[in-house]
Specification:
153 residues; mainly alpha
Length: 153
């Protein structure tokens, strides 16, 4: 994928994230909350899924414990005439900010390493802040996988 396409993809995803609104999961989980709001007994999803009532209750508990599978969630949602949606959302709703932060960290590390090496030869980078800013901008624009390698600069 070209640099331009990567930047467009990043921008488009950020736009989608900014339009999303998510509510925190209810304490009893979505399955139980929706099932009870529908006045649906445990027997109904159990019969539809051909499992026992205690198995449905266990799935509800597994949702709270975050050990339920997406497949089970999707099946239970379908039984309740609902559909499952899931997403991974950046904390600040911006992938660009994640890239910028990582680019700055990597640039700072490189500039510090180079500066330390050069100081051994009695030379130093004249304006390390400017060098970090320049290098970080390059990393953010290039969007190469090496940005995420800790062992490479």
């Amino acid at each position: 994928m070209t640099k331009k396409l990567k930047q467009i993809q990043l921008t488009n995803l950020d736009k989608r994230f900014n339009q999303m609104r998510f509510e925190p999961k209810p304490k009893s989980g979505w399955i139980k909350t929706i099932r009870e709001a529908l006045s649906m007994p445990l027997a109904f999803p159990a019969k539809k899924l051909k499992i026992s009532q205690p198995s449905v209750a266990r799935l509800e508990k597994n949702e709270i414990d975050e050990s339920i599978t997406l497949k089970s969630l999707r099946q239970l949602a379908a039984v309740m005439n609902c559909e499952l949606h899931y997403a991974i959302i950046p904390h600040q709703k911006s992938l660009k900010k994640i890239v910028e932060k990582r680019s700055e960290q990597k640039a700072r590390s490189i500039v510090n390493d180079v500066n330390n090496t050069m100081s051994l030869e009695d030379q130093k980078i004249k304006d390390p802040k400017r060098s970090v800013k320049f290098l970080a901008k390059e990393f953010a624009e290039d969007l190469k996988k090496s940005l995420w390698h800790d062992d490479e600069n």
